[in-house]
Specification:
disordered N terminus, mainly alpha, 54 helices
């Protein structure tokens, strides 16, 4: 608002000063020497207020009490204080008034102080003094002036009602009329009394002083009165001569007028010309332009405006979000549309929009997935809220489908249990089957079994057959092989469905028989399986190996050899094992020449095979049988020298010692036997070596030397050996009978306590640990496994290392498990134990933050042949996670990409998250969002990864300049996922950044730390 009436402010102020001086001089009548006083007056007139005040203060001190001089000096002293802005000025004026109640300067002083503050733009101070003026003793013109200035001061201090009251009597005054009429009209405009404002302002619309301002106000009044056609006509003329600032406001009125007349294409250019208040638009501004684009089907520009509307909940926002949802749908951006409809459905301003938005939100949740709630829950919420909806049946049908689509089989079963209609009851068996398979894949075998049994209640043949198959498979995995065999046998007879799952029935039948040691029937089933067409090469090879083993077990060595040779013909990964078994088969056929040839192939052609030490041991034994002691020694020596960790070393030493003994080389034989007792104490081979050594000492007639030597062996107790053997024999018999674990533990405990260093110490402690392990008394088994392992490498050490490390792993005692696993890796004979040790070393090193070692073992595992898919994925996830820890993002991305192809469940969710993460880092925001949408649609049950990916989505949206979606995402994470504190904190940080940034260009957005409740009108009007 322009203060037009105060262009003459300086003149008014000078007039005010002169009136003071002239009036003051007339009061001096009672002094013969007025020189000091006149000098002070001259200083005052020359604006030397500080010097003048000092002089007036001096005069005031020496002047007579109650004299005119003292009163005048006090008056000027107070006037100087006011002019000099001294803190005590008010007090001096009040003191003057109090001390001179009858002074003719009292009212004048108050008027002059009020005028002074008014002239210096201190309206509040001026009002304070204007209110003290005794207006009754003023002249008519002075009263008009005071009323006008009070009106203006009220206006400035926003006391519009009081200001209006002051201006009204003056609107026809010759001096103050035009100004008063302008301000009166303006106040009516501000108070939205548009009729009074229009009639008042029109009376002076041709006044050059106010013409531009009044033109705008009258234009806006026409707008507020709904005279949009007039606004357009007048506004288009007015804008031609308007200044830049006025152009923006006039453009807004013209644009909104076109908008209200639904002439959207004409509205757009004017709405765009609006600069906002202080360079900022508000949500209404963005909505109007966005809606205009929307009605022109310019969807992208509509979205670009709608999505800037954040931070408010009102009718405009609800409409905007609903329209935004429709825009996204037109671009087939379902996830984005879901967010917009969700927000619109949560507002109460328009019930029709609310319900329709809720329906769209429910449907889109089903189609695109929902990160906040399970889709089924969203659908059920809609049914509860709108039970009379025309879409009720449609949504009701989607509930079960949504459970199945999200693979939430447990949720589906809970829902069906509550809604037990005939149709729903019929679905329970099939969904129970799916739930059982889900639990089976999570290795929750005992939990899965009841669901397969429930699945057999179906009337659907395919579901029935699958339920029977998975029941049998579960029983097999639980070690209930006899029951599994019965189930597989019956299923094969009754099977009516042909699907890929059932191709493995013969394979499973064979393994069930194999585990039950019914090798004859196992061979029949393995044979049947290998004759099928199109078999997986790895499974066929495994079946051929087990077919050979089955024939081997029933001593049908020729057919066993034939089966093993088929593996060799196909260059299978188990060729070294097949070649070794061929050699052993020839041995049992007493074809030692062929056996030697076959074993030599293992040794010479399979350099990395773990069976070379086996082959060398058997080759040496075969040479021994064929009386070729020289080659036998060569084989034994090669085994001992090249494979010092082999389990066959103690046996090889004993056999080699016997060879020397039979060749009458007693000293060499004695060296082998003594080495055995020294390096492998307590082992059965050590006892055999000691017994053989005794024979040599007897042959050499050197019994004293034997007694001296045997006393050095802690595991030999000559005097108690009979009692030792008898006590152990009783315990061992019970162990092998395996009837009552409690009695076995009692007998073995008695032995180890009676003979702590007995002949059978090794076996007894292993047996005791083994039984306790079977009884699941793992903590009690630990010390016995540790005793076995203290005896070095022996026939029980591999199993003890495996079981003991597993106990520590399940207790998360990685520091105890890791040394055992490392030793197991070095000493293990079976491939399974080698993989077990390496895979758990990998996991253990990761958990203990030895990331380089974890990485090393992950890569080592991936080099293996015939890896189980689960172990392969375990290795890849460790490599990926470790690479992230090491800031090697390229390797991490490589392995997460591989995992995404084959992984399932939580690993798939993690892999998808990092796919989105890497794309976000590379600013591929749209592609990253597609990945997040896949995760949300199919893996939202893995909540942590779903929510974590949602943070990436929020960042993507902001990178794509979709402010609404970014704001929506982070607000909903904060609102709905308080259980994930780390993710909520991250969302809060990102949301704070958005609000701070958007507040720079949008008046409706308030930065988080400054947010207050504010119900201001979104449309600001010009003064």
């Amino acid at each position: 608002m322009r203060l037009v009436c105060f262009k003459r402010r300086l003149f008014t102020y000078l007039l005010f000063i002169f009136s003071i001086v002239g009036y003051s001089q007339q009061t001096i009548v009672d002094y013969s020497d007025l020189t000091p006083y006149n000098n002070a007056i001259q200083l005052f007139n020359n604006k030397s207020y500080k010097a003048a005040q000092k002089s007036f203060a001096s005069i005031k001190e020496i002047a007579l009490t109650n004299s005119k001089l003292k009163s005048d000096a006090a008056y000027y002293d107070a006037m100087c204080a006011v002019i000099l802005h001294q803190p005590e000025a008010d007090k001096k004026i009040l003191a003057f008034i109090e001390e001179n109640p009858n002074s003719n300067k009292k009212n004048k002083a108050i008027v002059n102080v009020a005028k002074y503050y008014f002239a210096n733009n201190k309206a509040a101070y001026a009002l304070k003094w204007f209110k003290k003026v005794n207006i009754d003793i003023l002249s008519k013109e002075d009263r008009k002036e005071i009323n006008f200035k009070m009106g203006y001061a009220y206006l400035i201090t926003e006391n519009l009602i009081l200001a209006k009251k002051q201006f009204l009597p003056l609107i026809n005054d010759s001096r103050y009329g035009n100004d008063s009429r302008y301000y009166y009209g303006y106040i009516a405009y501000k108070l939205e009394d548009y009729g009074i404002a229009e009639s008042t302002l029109k009376e002076i619309e041709d006044n050059d002083t106010y013409r531009l301002e009044i033109s705008y106000y009258l234009l806006d009044i026409s707008f507020q009165s709904g005279k949009f056609e007039r606004c357009i006509t007048v506004g288009e003329e007015l804008i031609k001569t308007a200044k830049r600032k006025e152009r923006s406001e006039i453009s807004k009125i013209i644009g909104e007028s076109f908008f209200n007349l639904k002439r959207y294409s004409e509205a757009i250019p004017y709405l765009k010309e609006y600069n906002g208040k202080k360079g900022k638009w508000n949500n209404l501004d963005f909505y109007q332009l966005g809606f205009a684009y929307y009605k022109q089907n310019d969807i992208e520009n509509a979205i670009n405006n709608f999505n800037k509307i954040i931070d408010e909940k009102n009718n405009v926002a609800q409409n905007a979000y609903y329209n935004l949802g429709e825009c996204y749908l037109k671009l087939d951006q379902k996830t984005e549309a879901l967010s917009a409809f969700k927000t619109a459905s949560e507002m109460e301003f328009n019930s029709k929009i609310k319900e329709d938005a809720a329906l769209n939100y429910a449907k889109l949740s089903y189609e695109a997935g929902n990160p906040f709630k399970s889709v089924a829950e969203v659908l059920q919420d809609y049914l509860k809220t709108y039970p009379k909806s025309k879409a009720y049946e449609e949504i009701n049908d989607l509930v079960i489908s949504s459970f199945l689509h999200q693979q939430d089989y447990n949720g589906a079963l809970i829902f069906l249990a509550k809604k037990r209609s005939k149709k729903n009851i019929a679905l329970i068996p099939e969904i129970s089957l799916y739930r059982g398979i889900e639990l089976f894949n999570e290795n929750k075998l005992n939990e899965s079994l009841p669901f397969f049994i429930e699945g057999k209640k179906t009337t659907e043949t395919s579901v029935l057959d699958r339920a029977k198959y998975w029941e049998a498979e579960t029983l097999y995995r639980l070690g209930r092989h006899k029951e599994a065999l019965s189930k597989f046998t019956n299923l094969k007879k009754e099977l009516k469905t042909e699907i890929d799952e059932f191709d493995l029935i013969d394979y499973n039948l064979a393994y069930s028989n194999f585990k039950l040691k019914d090798y004859k029937n196992a061979a029949i089933s393995f044979e049947n399986y290998t004759k099928k067409e199109g078999l997986d090469s790895e499974l066929k090879e495994d079946a051929l190996i087990r077919l050979g083993d089955s024939y081997f077990a029933i001593r049908n060595y020729n057919q066993a050899i034939e089966s093993y040779q088929k593996v060799l013909q196909n260059f299978g990964s188990s060729s070294d094992y097949a070649q070794y078994q061929i050699g052993m088969g020839y041995g049992f056929l007493e074809d030692n020449k062929s056996k030697i040839k076959a074993l030599s192939i293992v040794i010479n052609e399979y350099e990395t095979s773990i069976l070379i030490d086996d082959a060398l041991f058997q080759l040496a034994n075969t040479y021994t049988i064929t009386k070729n002691n020289k080659k036998a020694h060569l084989a034994f020596n090669q085994l001992i020298e090249k494979y010092p960790s082999s389990v066959f070393i103690p046996k090889a030493l004993v056999r080699q010692g016997l060879l020397y003994y039979n060749d009458n080389q007693n000293q060499k034989a004695l060296e082998k036997f003594k080495r055995t007792t020294r390096e492998f104490p307590n082992s059965p081979d050590a006892f055999e070596a000691a017994a053989n050594a005794k024979n040599i000492y007897i042959d050499d007639d050197n019994l004293d030397a034997y007694i001296s030597w045997v006393k050095t062996l802690k595991f030999i107790n000559v005097t108690n050996s009979d009692l030792d053997n008898t006590t152990f024999a009783v315990a061992e018999k019970k162990y092998f009978e395996a009837k009552k674990y409690v009695n076995i533990v009692k007998s073995l405990t008695k032995y180890v306590q009676s003979f702590p260093d007995g002949i059978h110490k090794l076996k007894a402690n292993y047996y005791l640990a083994d039984i306790l392990h079977k009884m699941k008394k793992f903590d009690k088994a630990i010390p016995y496994y540790q005793i076995v392992l203290k005896e070095g490498r022996n026939e029980f050490s591999e199993d003890s290392l495996s079981k003991l490390s597993q106990i520590f792993l399940e207790k998360d005692e990685f520091n105890n498990a890791l040394p055992l696993l490392k030793r197991l890796e070095q000493e293990a004979y079976t491939t399974a134990n080698i993989l077990f040790s390496q895979s758990n070393l990998m996991k253990g090193y990761y958990e203990t933050e030895s990331f380089d070692l974890a990485l090393e073992y992950g890569k080592k595992i991936l080099l293996k042949d015939k890896l189980d898919p689960k172990l392969e994925n375990d290795a890849k996830i460790i490599i990926a996670r470790t690479s992230l820890k090491n800031d090697d993002f390229y390797t991490a991305e490589e392995y997460y990409t591989e995992l995404e192809i084959n992984a399932s469940g939580v690993l798939k969710a993690e892999a998808l998250y990092y796919n989105a993460f890497f794309k976000n880092q590379q600013k591929e925001y749209a592609e990253a969002n597609k990945v997040v949408q896949d995760l949300i649609a199919n893996y939202s049950s893995y909540k942590y990864w779903a929510v974590k990916s949602y943070i990436i989505m929020g960042k993507n949206y902001y990178g794509l300049k979709d402010v609404y979606q970014a704001n929506f995402v982070f607000e909903n994470i904060i609102k709905n996922f308080k259980q994930f504190k780390d993710l909520v904190e991250e969302a809060q940080i990102e949301l704070k950044k958005i609000k701070e940034n958007e507040a720079k260009t949008n008046n409706s957005v308030i930065p988080i730390e400054e947010k207050i409740t504010d119900n201001k009108d979104s449309k600001k009007k010009k003064i």
